[in-house]
UniProtKB/TrEMBL annotation:
<keyword id="KW-0686">Riboflavin biosynthesis</keyword>
<dbReference type="Pfam" id="PF01872">
    <property type="entry name" value="RibD_C"/>
</dbReference>
<keyword id="KW-0560">Oxidoreductase</keyword>
<dbReference type="InterPro" id="IPR002125">
    <property type="entry name" value="CMP_dCMP_dom"/>
</dbReference>
<keyword id="KW-0862">Zinc</keyword>
<comment type="pathway">
    <text>Cofactor biosynthesis; riboflavin biosynthesis; 5-amino-6-(D-ribitylamino)uracil from GTP: step 3/4.</text>
</comment>
<comment type="similarity">
    <text>In the N-terminal section; belongs to the cytidine and deoxycytidylate deaminase family.</text>
</comment>
<comment type="similarity">
    <text>In the C-terminal section; belongs to the HTP reductase family.</text>
</comment>
<comment type="function">
    <text>Converts 2,5-diamino-6-(ribosylamino)-4(3h)-pyrimidinone 5'-phosphate into 5-amino-6-(ribosylamino)-2,4(1h,3h)-pyrimidinedione 5'-phosphate.</text>
</comment>
<dbReference type="GO" id="GO:0008703">
    <property type="term" value="F:5-amino-6-(5-phosphoribosylamino)uracil reductase activity"/>
</dbReference>
<dbReference type="InterPro" id="IPR024072">
    <property type="entry name" value="DHFR-like_dom_sf"/>
</dbReference>
<dbReference type="InterPro" id="IPR050765">
    <property type="entry name" value="Riboflavin_Biosynth_HTPR"/>
</dbReference>
<dbReference type="InterPro" id="IPR002734">
    <property type="entry name" value="RibDG_C"/>
</dbReference>
<feature type="domain" description="CMP/dCMP-type deaminase">
    <location>
        <begin position="2"/>
        <end position="121"/>
    </location>
</feature>
<keyword id="KW-0378">Hydrolase</keyword>
<dbReference type="Pfam" id="PF00383">
    <property type="entry name" value="dCMP_cyt_deam_1"/>
</dbReference>
<dbReference type="InterPro" id="IPR004794">
    <property type="entry name" value="Eubact_RibD"/>
</dbReference>
Length: 364
């Protein structure tokens, strides 16, 4: 992987600083440079607000300067909320633009527009790093489906917990904090009814121990209508989507809808909820990233359907022995998956192994 130039690296840092705060817009960064000095910076504002390029160009004399942007500047299109960045760049008199990655929504027309106006444009500096940063957006644009992260904590002997031995929470504080930082940028978190019943999780993002300013959508898979409407997941604070099967009890449905949650009715195939149908419905609601937090049956269903893009495995130094509930449920027929490349983060006493399954490959 060729490293981005230092100015592009700065633009990438800006983009990363607004990760999860721009949805459904991609997180983008821009840096304006003159005579080897950064004269201004921009990052995408929350949806409906200025784009990174517009923010970098605001209030400065950009004539003759070079603009580094992590994504291709946008062009006019129907329903657009903000003025097109390519026009702003042209009007500002920018001489040169360095773009890391083409925007699949714009498809090269932004670069063309700039070139037609006599601006020198280079594409590709930092392309791999930006592709990595924008995996959720790129998958959603390409397939209309959210990018799926399977997150679980697992003991050294492959168990996810041992409630009968009093072990329900496996990891230490450092791992919990990291998991909350990831909840803090994704569009949605999903759990199965078993997890709601057993753990009653709030499913909120609490980075640094405090509730985040923006909460991910909570998704509950409950084919048969087993969850109580009094569960914490239905508390106000974020939209809740409950995916159920045809035929779940009408009284339960009414109670769930009364909590303010949205019901989605999914087909079944071989007895299981059609998860691809669920992902399509979430994608249509502009959900670009989804963390699947379990439990084991839910993880197995996502892996069986080859719908997992990224794995976050928190490995915890314990052996749960015969009391452990296996990560892989009995009877599941799961494929072999090699995670590559991997990030290994020590979060003492635990270790996070994070990486890609290859189920979806970004276009590059
Ligand atoms: C950019 N810079 O920082 C971002 C871009 O409705 P609008 O006006 O907000 O436009 C949304 C589209 O703009 C979005 O679908 C994506 O193609 C692009 N995002 N473009 O030039 C940015 N976030
Ligand atoms: Zn734009």
């Amino acid at each position: 992987m060729s490293a981005p130039s230092p100015f592009m690296q700065e633009a990438i840092r800006l983009a990363a600083s607004v990760r999860g705060r721009t949805s459904p817009n991609p997180w983008v960064g821009a840096v304006l440079v003159r005579d080897g000095q950064v004269i201004s910076r921009g990052a995408t504002a929350p949806y409906g607000g200025p784009h990174a390029e517009a923010a970098a160009l605001a209030g400065v004399d950009a004539r003759g300067a070079t603009l580094y942007c992590t994504l291709e500047p946008c062009v006019p299109f129907e329903g657009k909320r903000t003025p097109p960045c390519s026009d702003a760049i042209i009007q500002a008199g920018v001489a040169r633009v360095v773009v890391a990655l083409l925007d699949p929504h714009v498809g090269g027309t932004g670069v063309q527009r700039l070139r037609d106006a006599g601006i020198e444009v280079a594409v590709g500096d930092g392309a791999e790093a930006v592709t990595d940063l924008l995996r959720p957006y790129l998958k959603w644009r390409q397939l209309g489906l959210p990018y799926v992260i399977a997150k679980f904590a697992v003991s050294l002997d492959g168990a996810v917990g041992a409630p009968s031995a009093g072990v329900t929470w496996l990891t230490g504080q450092a791992a919990v904090e990291r998991a909350h930082r990831d909840r803090d940028w994704v569009d949605a978190i999903l759990v199965g009814s078993g997890t709601v019943i057993a753990d009653d999780p709030a499913l909120t993002a609490r980075p640094g121990g405090q509730p985040a300013d923006r909460q991910p959508v909570r998704v509950v898979l409950d084919a048969r209508g087993r969850t109580s409407p009094d569960s914490r997941v239905f508390a106000p604070g974020a939209p809740v989507i409950v995916a159920t099967a045809h035929g779940s009890p009408p009284e339960w449905r009414e109670a769930i809808v009364r909590t303010g949650a949205t019901l989605l009715e999914l087909d079944r195939s071989s007895g299981r909820l059609e998860l691809r149908q669920l992902l399509r419905a979430l994608g249509q609601r502009n959900i670009q990233s989804l963390v699947v937090e379990g439990g084991p049956t839910v993880h197995a269903s996502f892996f069986e359907a080859d719908l997992v893009d990224e794995v976050h495995a928190y490995v915890t130094p314990r052996l749960l022995g015969s009391a452990g509930i296996p990560l892989v449920p009995q009877g599941a027929s799961l494929p072999v998956i090699h995670i590559d490349p991997v990030e290994i983060a020590p979060l003492p006493p635990d270790v996070l192994i994070r990486g890609y399954t290859g189920s979806w490959q970004p276009p590059l």
